[in-house]
Amino acid sequence: PEVIRYMVARVDLALREELGIADGLADPRVHLLDPCCGTGAYVVEVLRQIAATLRAQGEEALLGYQVKQAALTRVFGFELLPAPFVVAHLQVGLFLQQLEAPLRDDEERAKIYLTNALTGWE
Predict the structure, then answer these.
(1) What per-residue confidence (pLDDT) applies to 10?
(2) Assuming Cys at both sites, which of 12, 59, 87, 95 could form a disulfide with 54, CB separation 3.0 to 4.6 Å?
(3) pTM (two decimals)
(4) CA–CA separation, 25 and 12 (whole Å)
(5) Phi, psi (deg, nearest 5) at residue 84
């Protein structure tokens, strides 16, 4: 987890300092693709970073909603194996529940897909 936290922090810092995106990963224009998301540790850490940035900006009232929107629209994960795929969905769902913004089972799902993102490109 520490390595993942460090990697996400470095990406956030690069967005801010190198690309001039003041909100880093929390900026709605930033989309993240994890081609081998496994159990979703990186995806969840990105959502944590987004939450931390919004919290630091005083966005507490809409924090859960905004992080949930990021999970539904701009943070993507791809996984080849079924078991880690299911765990990734569970991890994202549990994190959003902690923020009091649970996914509605019948209408919403994290953007994590069961597919091979590394082969088959033409």
Answers:
(1) 97
(2) 59
(3) 0.93
(4) 6
(5) -65, -35
**Closest by Cα among 58, 56, 46 to 88:** 46
CB-based contacts of 24: which residues, under 8 Å, 6+ apart? 11, 12, 13, 15, 16, 30, 49, 53
| Beta carbons of 96 and 102 less than 8 angstroms apart | yes
Q: What is the pLDDT of residue 54?
A: 96
pLDDT, tens only, 12-45: 999 999 999 999 999 999 999 999 999 999 999 9
Mean pLDDT of 83-108: 94
| pLDDT (mean) for 60-67 | 92
Question: Mapped to the 3 state alphabet, what secondary structure does the chain carry?
Answer: CHHHHHHHHHHHHHHHHCCCCCCHHHCCCCCEEECCCCCCHHHHHHHHHHHHHHHHCCCHHHHHHHHHHHHHHCEEEEECCHHHHHHHHHHHHHHHHHCCCCCCCCCCCCCEEECCCCCCCC
